Amino acid sequence: MSSHVPAAPLRTAVVGTGSIARSSHLPALQKLAADGEVEVVAAVDVDAAAVRAFADEYGIPHASTDLDASLAEVRPDLVVLCTPPAVHREQSVAALRTGAHVWCEKPPCPSLADYDAVTEAEGAGEAGPYASIVFQHRFGSGARHVRALLGSGALGRPLVAHCQTTWYRDKAYYAVPWRGRWATEGGGPAMGHGIHQTDLLLDLMGPWSEVRGMAGRLVHDVETEDVSTALVRFEGGAVATLVNSVLSPDEVSRIRIDCELATVELTHLYGYRNADWRITPAPGVPEETVAAWRDFGADEPSSHLAQLRVLVDDIRSGRRHATSGAGGRRTLELITAVYKSAFTGATVSAGEVGPGDPYYTELHGRAPGWAPAAVREEEDQA
To answer: Which pTM does this prediction carry?
Structure first.
């Protein structure tokens, strides 16, 4: 296996032609194509009519229902996965084995075991080929600015944080067959909805050390949870609350970090601009210092485009992208730990969930009351 990435443009294949591909990935790819950075050369989907219509609409020369055949024929440099999480492992490994890089929609995989299998299929060294995750909230100008302030110690030590993804999803949303099921969606709001805010919190706060979680299935007739909460302790000593819900009519995404010298708060819904961030200084901080903190520079909203620009540059430069490998795994590991803690009642430490642990392979961990009926029947027969 070897990477065959040219200087430019990156030959790109889009796998999955549903709403996320149309609303987010194609606009980003088209913008970079206009700049000569990428060229969309193939589209793949299990629905023959859908992929043909997609390819015709966007002027994509190759349309197919067969991913393996497309990879062999087209030999893309970058494969963009816009498919449900249950197939991410298989599709990522297939692309990596042909030498293509992968940019995969969240959730990256239904389990840490699946994620590690993808990582094992990557190429050697920084240049890859490797798989990265769509975690676009890390890449807006607001996050870059606040990450720099926190990293430099300008705001003092982070002490207390709050991370909230409280959204609303009705019964029609869960009428889609693959939603609300462990095998196909991977998890409930902790996995499928709040993962972006959780990832951004970790990006800003650094490594976590332990978590205590709770989960409930309060409204929806699903296998997974529809609400969860957790307490998180970070290696630096800070503590945080984590709330994920699909039961909340007043929808909001929020991160708040209280540091020694200031409070930083981000309030938005599905994406932010600089104006969505607020910095409140502690008493006594000089006005000129506060003014510098509040100067976020040019406004680059969090978006697929913002991340894709960085990813393409990283691939060309032979660098590891921030959401690949360990940089993506840490978020999935924390979410896994939330489930394990919620279903066992125990505090879970970083690094605890590994091979041999039931939560390593399935986020429900075969826990009574949470494992699917088929798994429960299998347990009874054993």
So the answer is: 0.95
